[in-house]
Amino acid sequence: MIQIQTLRKSFGPTEILKGIDLDIAEGEFVTLLGHSGCGKSTLLRIIAGLERADAGQLSCDGAVLDDLAQGRFVPTQARRFGFVFQDHALWPHMSIDDNIAFPLRSAGWRKSEMAARVREVLEQVQMAEHAGKSPRQLSGGQRQRVGIARALALSPRVLLLDEPLASLDSNLRDDLGHEIRKLSKQFGLTCINVTHDRREAQILSDRIAVMEGGRIQQVGAPLEVFTRPGNVGIARFVNAGNIVPRAFLDDGPWTDDWLLLPRNALQVAPAGGDVTAKVQDMVFIDGRFEVKVEARGQELTFFSDARPSESGEIELTVRRETVVPLSA
Fold first, then answer.
1. CA-CA distances (angstroms) from residue 94 to 90, 97, 107, 110, 131?
2. What is the distance of C-alpha 233 from the center of its chain?
3. How far apart are CA 223 and CA 84, in angstroms?
4. Gap between the Cα atoms of 259 and 255, Å rounded
5. What pTM, to 2 d.p., does this model score?
6. What is the pLDDT of residues 41-71, one digit of tens each?
């Protein structure tokens, strides 16, 4: 549905996007994941029509939306894309009904039609009981639901989300993340999300595009990106596990300079393990122990159902089948 070809964008002498290629299917939920300054928000703004690309092409359903070489640019209001902002962006002097009705009024809807549509989208985001309230009477999560309702009001072809969960506490972030994903699938929405939060990307996404330095480094399903990252930089950013030099395990077939040892690759051995480790710290999280150790000059973290000894040394085995070789 969305096709991005060799898209480039600079601000002054600084090149922000350095040739972005990405196809997004209809009904797909794709997250642009990366550090601040990697170009993900600029890319989202170009998709929304809030910025123009310097080169390359952006299309939707085969129609060109942005192509400087062709002199083609479709303005934001003509794209029928919904936008959900990080800070909700609700007008505090308006009721939530009026906030949701604003894009409908701008599109020339009649008053009776607007009222019916506002009721409908409030029900869709489970906020019907709060109709008529002002934004200040709502919690952060409720305000974000209203922001989503406003974005859905005009039945957008594509829903764009700019870190929609960033301002919420962790428990609410997970709950609303699942709700957003559920709504996107319920209405068959094509969604493009921007975030630096790894957990948010995993909860929401069908696919994740990892960005760094103005380029897309890897595209794949969350399972692929987090268990088979494309290089050391991606593995570190997504916190995929323990990254060690190849010499840490000298008996494998690997030719790359680095190895990824997932946290479930390490197991406590009764005796005669692959490596001897000294326990540095441990905490109990989500029904298991997260254990930090030092072994062969490397700091490692692994999960254990049982509590290892906190004093002295322990033996660890490495499940070779889970080891992922990494290029620099």
1. 8, 8, 18, 19, 12
2. 17
3. 26
4. 10
5. 0.89
6. 999 999 999 999 999 999 999 999 999 999 9
